[in-house]
Amino acid sequence: DQQVKQNSPSLSVQEGRISILNCDYTNSMFDYFLWYKKYPAEGPTFLISISSIKDKNEDGRFTVFLNKSAKHLSLHIVPSQPGDSAVYFCAASSPYNTDKLIFGTGTRLQVFP
Amino acid sequence: EAGVAQSPRYKIIEKRQSVAFWCNPISGHATLYWYQQILGQGPKLLIQFQNNGVVDDSQLPKDRFSAERLKGVDSTLKIQPAKLEDSAVYLCASSLTTMNTEAFFGQGTRLTVV
Prior knowledge:
The complex is a heterodimer.
Chain A: E1 4-5, E2 10-14, E3 19-25, E4 32-38, E5 45-51, E6 56-59, E7 62-67, E8 72-77, E9 86-94, E10 97-103, E11 107-112
Parallel strand pairs in A: 2-11
Antiparallel strand pairs in A: 1-3, 3-8, 4-5, 4-9, 6-7, 7-8, 9-10, 9-11
Chain B: E1 5-7, E2 10-13, E3 19-24, E4 31-37, E5 44-50, E6 53-56, E7 65-68, E8 75-79, E9 88-95, E10 104-105, E11 109-113
Parallel strand pairs in B: 2-11
Antiparallel strand pairs in B: 1-3, 3-8, 4-5, 4-9, 5-6, 7-8, 9-10, 9-11
């Protein structure tokens, strides 16, 4: 049972344009969401997070939007840069174990010049 | 600040052999996790420690996998005996105990079972 889903395995975007990565979840108890970025041969690194009391969180070029009614969140990267090329994982946790993250399957983003 | 250290980086073993992975979390991080990431999938939590106590091991295949964190710092994850489907990257992560803090991951150990 995949509680966190990233239905697009890959995304290709031109440098300078916007990258939009999507994530859907099924568990309505999830109340905290995170995005991690992973380069090859490295562990995932934290990028940005959002609590369910918000619908938007922004950090520089990265913005995460949360639509609770649709159980959907998205990560926007503007402008995209070649260094953003990586695999992006969406993760979620619930109040029952705030430290337990459930990860999606990831989306590979490629930013080309 | 030093990150999460894991060793070895790579390991190749034959099926039915045993293997152990080591993790040293970030200093002061009470919570330690072991994740399994199979190719093409997201990380899956195997076990979560708070200090040296187990918080969640519901997805740990206990017939072959074991983990310990004896002094509440370093941790080892063992597989005995290994199966072909255990081929994966094993990621260790740590976090502070405060609510909703992000986990910091090590580089992982890539295990290949042949």
